[in-house]
Amino acid sequence: MITSNFFVNFNLILDKNKIKDILVKNGKHRRDAFDYIDNLIKKYSDNKKYNATLDRETFAITLWIIKYINEKPLINRFITDQRDVFGNRIAEMLLENYDNVIEYFSTFGIGDASIETVGNKYLFKIPFNIFIRYNKKLSGNKYRLVYQMLDNGYVYIDLRQAAHILREYFAVKMHDIYDKMDYSDSKDIFEGFYDKLDELKKEFIEINRKKTMNLGEIDSSIFPPCIKEYINEINDGGNPSHMARLTLATFLHHIGMDNEHIVKIFSRTADFDESSASYQIGHLTGSISGTEYSPPKCATLKSNHLCYMGDDALCPHIKHPLQYYEIKAKDKINSRKK
Ligand code: SF4
Questions:
Q1: Counting atoms of ligand 1 from 1, which one is nearest the CA of 314?
Q2: Is 313's pLDDT higher than 90?
């Protein structure tokens, strides 16, 4: 039964009296949580993944420590790290037994999933509103509703898609839980541990300060809203989707930034891997592949939930993010001449 041994207990996290009790009575969970955070921060400094599996009590204490430290890039890094642990576990379970995963869908109120044989394939059947709630960060036609087989409000997806939808569910749920946790409760829970926690916070802030994004000569004030949003997400230590990264990398290349600088910008993402980022950026910008890719058009970004035009006055009149930048750059030059 998946819920009896799985590593996250959402109810426990929100029960601050139980957390206080575990913290005082069980030194092992407390030490494991402090060690985990210490390692997570050190790996962050080296841009390395950590991906350690935590038991339920240690996971809950760790999340409260992060609430105490109260730095957005740290919570983003933690959720990304644990999202990957969760994703790997789900993938393993799908190889072992589908019923476990179906039970996971229902136990956590994600939706009433089932398995059906369609042709010679086993497919998950999940409510379409679940699919569209958790597909937003997943790029590619495999995750767009218009390309799915739909029947009576249900979507049929393969096992890999199901694992990805669940992984995204986990990340969204963790952000929701974290937002429900009260900062003042973290002060109460960790009374007696402030020195150690303040030291960790100081170390994290110092590391994060050194990673501050530098756009060099480039004028970011005239970037379109979508590009600003992807940069903000990276600055907060988040993980933009594959298409957002592709758009940002090709956009920065086309406005004149060199590859080394683009890699540096991506070094703040929670799952950064320098050799893979350098290769991918070399591929997109043509230095490895010989093909220089362009950013996607606005229509493509809109259909992938990656347009953030809001009430921007220029966006409704353009078709491409580079067009936005060119118009704004010309306006700026003209206004200087006046
Ligand atoms: S309209 Fe185009 S340029 Fe503007 S935010 Fe959307 S995708 Fe970006």
A1: 4
A2: yes
